[in-house]
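Sat 14:20. Reprocessing the chain from the morning session after the first attempt stalled halfway. Input below, unchanged.
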Amino acid sequence: LAWHPIHERLFSSGGSDGSIYFWHVGTEKELAGMDDAHEGMIWDMSWHPLGHMLVSGSNDHTTRFWTRNRPGDTVLERSEEGILMHASRLDQMHREELEHERASEEFNMPGLG
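Finished this time. Tokens:
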């Protein structure tokens, strides 16, 4: 478990299955999550002091740094056929996210949300 350094009601949790979830105190459902963040149990997590980056350490002997993609970044997905690039899909997702943020006053997770 790691509390966000800026937003006191935001925290992340790491699971024994290698998953990472982001929570906001007072909500029953997670804000976001990564089911396969690691291949083993997550031992520790910590936020950068400015809150834009999360680091996680796992039983799979890896340390991973997590940040939010910026608008225009290319999303890379690995598959058996090779690496697929989806820049247009990311742009569409970002546009939809901005529209959603403008339409509601929901909590926005800095750096990840």
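The CA atoms of residues 101 and 108 lie 8 Å apart.
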